[in-house]
Amino acid sequence: MNGSFFDVFDDEPRLRFGYVWFFLGYTNIERRNYDFLVMCLKYSYFCALKKYTFMNHYETVFILNPVLSEEQIAETVKKFEDFLIKNGAKMVSKENWGLKKLAYAIQHKKSGFYHLFEFTAPGEVVAPYEQELKREERVMRFLTVKLDKHAIEWAEKRRSRLKTKA
Question: Model pTM greater than 0.90?
Fold first, then answer.
């Protein structure tokens, strides 16, 4: 019995990195809770490996060019919503704030159509999403922020206030 317990996984780097290890020994476990179960007979341990993807809560506000038609605005918003859903995000809320005057001119425009997306997604989704926002010429400005627990509570209160007003 030379080597360590981890020597069993030297040939499979995906079993060592990116997974959370559970050394369960001889305990009785519910195997249906795990993606797969690997039995290591060499050391008489059960190693349950489960891949965790942490879903962070994000909020994006973007400003669309004011010269766009209603169809173009709806098409652009749908494009970004589909992009998020296709990449594993779950839409929490989507709001159209309408045409608003800007505090200062952006691209020689003094107003823009504001939209808010609130979504949960793995962290890897945000960079390609922002890249798509940068590439879209209809988007004048955007900001994506990760919400902490206090901001999530505030967003829920804001949504409930909007529902009661409507």
Answer: no
